[in-house]
Each structure stands twice: as structure tokens, then as C-alpha cells.
Amino acid sequence: MKLLSSSLLFFTLLLSVNMFSQKIITSIDSPKKVEIDTLSHWVNKNRIGFDISEIAFVNWNAGGTSSISGLLKGKFNRVYTKDNYNWTNELIVRYGLNKQDGIELRKTEDVLQLSSALGYRKDTLSNWFHTAKFNFATQFTDGYAYPNKDISVSRPFAPAYIFLGLGAEYASKDKHELLYLSPFTSKITMVLDQRLANQGAFGVKKALYDLDGNLIAEGEKSKVELGFLLTGFYKKEIFKNITVENRLSLYSDYINKFGNIDVDYDLTLELVVNEYVKTNIGVHVIYDDDIKAKEEVNGKQVTVGPKTQLKQVLGVGIVYNF
Description:
Elements: H1 2-20, E1 24-26, E2 34-36, E3 42-55, E4 67-82, E5 85-100, E6 103-120, E7 128-138, E8 160-171, E9 177-190, H2 194-199, E10 208-209, E11 215-217, E12 222-239, E13 242-253, E14 261-272, E15 277-287, E16 294-297, E17 300-303, E18 309-321
Protein name: DUF3078 domain-containing protein
Keywords: Signal
Organism: Flavobacterium gillisiae
């Protein structure tokens, strides 16, 4: 929790500095016209939204289950650009719930991601930057392997992932095309819940027990790796009012099973109805050899091998940019 508080405090301070770095000027010719002082090198982009989907049945012959889902999401960007320096910061939050008749409230989405990249280029003509990059990701609440809701399979900071590395990044002028290559990236996996750490969840070293089941040594709460990281971002309006956004991350550890690649791919298609109403279609694919799937067998949760994780999302909601 201390790391989360520090991360949020950092982002708050960044926001405060950015707010005071801009000077508001009112034009004499047009009092309502507001201009931004060009001395500021910050660019702010904020987006919050809420998606909702609902289906209800009353005396419906074909049958069906009434349900309602909601997803609250936010994306906050702070970009500092001056001469040959570029500092990009992004905070992404998403939290979704679903309620069906006869079934308890269930979580559908839970994301907290913070990223920061500081880059330097030799001249203003180049699109390649020497870049130091930091990424942090975790969740807000406990996760369960439904229908089992008695024992959590994940918790806040269990897991949490930190990527910290040095490399080279290609960035287009509008930042809609990004390619980052890092031969030296440290991946830190944290499992700050001792029960999950004892199980060896998410790849940490599990606890040791004697033949009678007595605990000898508790499981480790963190795992540190050093490897190669490739990330990509691509955003384009493919048709009028239809924008596609791609995010890709590939990571391989040098020491443990080099060549075994962790994959994280997120594809989002945004269809604009108007300034405030948008439809989103998304596909998220994850493969991580350290994440073991859980299945329920005869009423008990059984840990099986790693599997490809797939999530598909379709939502219509309200979006506000400021």
C-alpha cells in the first residue's frame, strides 16, 4: 500500500506542477476567449467515461437471465516537451461490475496502471529517443475464480508488476505511433498477500513444508527478473469517426527460460456517435507462463498450467474529455 500511495502522490504532484505551469490570458478584444500561455511546455489530456449495458426479461417464453453491467474508466495524460527532451506520463484506471438475477455482484474489470517515460534525442529532426521507462500495474479489489467467492485468487498488490528499464523509443510527432526497445528491463513481480505468496502464485517462490504439512519457510513476496522488453502503440482513424488503438508488450527473461515470451496485447475500436457518446469494441489477450490458471473440480479449486487469457468487451457509454 505504501508504494501505491507514493505513486498516487507522485501523479498528484505532477498534476499540480502542470496546472501552475500554465498561465491563463483573457483577450481584450474578446473577453470570453481564453488562451494558453505558450511558455508552458506541458500538454494535458484527460478522459473519463462510463459504459453501461442492460438486458431484462419479463414473461419471456424463450427464457433468459436479466443482467446489468457498468464500467467506470479514466485515462489521464501529462506530456512535457522542450527542445530535445520529452517526458510522457499516463494513468489508466478501469473498474467494472455485473449483476445478474439470482447471482451475486461480480467484478468484470479491475485495472490500475501508471507509466512514465523520459526521453532525450540528439536533435529535433530525429524521432528516436534514448528513453528510461517505468511501468506499474495492479488492481483495486480482490479477484475470484467464480462461482467460488470464498477464497480470492488475487488481491491489491497481489500481484503488482513493475517494469523499469533503459532503451530506445521511436515516437511520431503526434505520439500516435510508438515503438520501444529495451535490452535491459527489470521486471518485479510483487505478491504482498502471504497466503498467495505461500502458494507460489504469479511465479514467486512458494513456501516450504515438511512431510507433516508444517510450515518451514514462508513463500517470497517478490520476484525480480532481467530481460528484453518490446512495447508498441499505434492509433489511427481508419474511417470517419472510427478509431483503432493497439497496445502490445512482449517480455522475455534472460535467466529463467529465455525465449519464453510474456504477451500482453490490447486492441480497442472506438466508434464515435457524438462528442460525448461513444461505442467501444475491445479484445485483450494475455499469456504469462508464471500465471497458472485455476479450475473448479468437484467443488475444489485446482491449479493447472498457464493458459492464454482472452477478454472481449463491447460497451456503449458517455465520455467526457477535459
